[in-house]
Amino acid sequence: MKAAVLTFPGSNCDDDLLWAVKDIAGADAELVSAKSESLDGFDLVLVPGGFSYGDYLRSGAIAKFAPIMTALKQFADNGGYVLGICNGFQILTEAGLLPGALQWNTSLEFICEPEPLKVVNNQTAFSNQYPEDQAITLPIAHGEGNYYADADTLAEIEANHQVVFRYAKNPNGSLNDIAGLTNKAGNVLGMMPHPERAVEALLGGTDGLGVFESLINATKGAAHAAN
Ligand SMILES: NC(=O)CC[C@H](N)C(=O)O
User: Fold this and answer.
1) Is the CB of 50 under 6 A from ligand 1?
2) Where is the active site (predicted)?
């Protein structure tokens, strides 16, 4: 399995994400510039957090026009696994790869704190290594993490069991306490909390490791096998 970690101008969690998936979880992985037009040779694409293009207009609104996005859409359409974290989640909603949108937190403040969550669906490529309904704590660090979708879309998301992570104490106003969800097909996940910041005891916890272990498990036997 080989993972690509995308880097946009203004990404600031790309190196941490590469370190988490490669050095800690043990997958083959490399950084791929947003200027690249190909994702050939990768079995998993990770879209990192940060402030792509300075968060101008809206978080993720400019990143969706980056050259790599055409290849990313193709990759996702072909069933490839895509994980977007924080700004990565915002980019995936802006690009239409995930439903809904991320609005400003109801407090209108940037919130940076450890956040208690529940893994409400462990039947996905991103969560299969967590026990059912596992309580975990992951750091959040965002200004625009308030998940919104219209009533019909929200009902569809719930009916399809697309919500994977819910906040235990909603910090930002997200509808239905949604902290992370997949697309309908289940191969694209966006989440506001940062699993890559919780993969070593020294960082304060290892609750995020399960996301990377789940993906390594889901891509076992993938074409570009290093694991
Ligand atoms: N850590 C991040 O990815 C920040 C996300 C985004 N730029 C926000 O503040 O909402």
Assistant:
1) yes
2) 86, 194, 196
- Domains defined for the chain, CATH in brackets: 2-218 (3.40.50.880)
222 CA → ligand 1 middle, Å: 31
**pTM, two decimal places:** 0.96
* ∠ Cα 24 8 6 (to 5°): 40
Half-sphere exposure (Cβ direction) of 182: Cα atoms closer than 13 Å: 24
* Residue 119: CB atoms within 10 Å: 25
Determine if ligand 1 sits within 6 Å of the CB of residue 144. yes
d(CA 181, CA 32): 24
Ligand 1 center from residue 152 Cα (angstroms): 27
- The predicted model gives 145-159 an average pLDDT of 98
Beta strand segments in the chain, E: 2-7, 28-33, 44-47, 81-85, 101-103, 111-119, 135-142, 146-148, 163-167, 178-182, 188-191
Give tens-digit pLDDT for 120-132. Answer: 999 999 999 999 9
Q: What digits encode the pLDDT tens for the residues 46-70?
A: 999 999 999 999 999 999 999 999 9
The response to whether residue 190 sits with its C-beta less than 6 Å from ligand 1 reads no
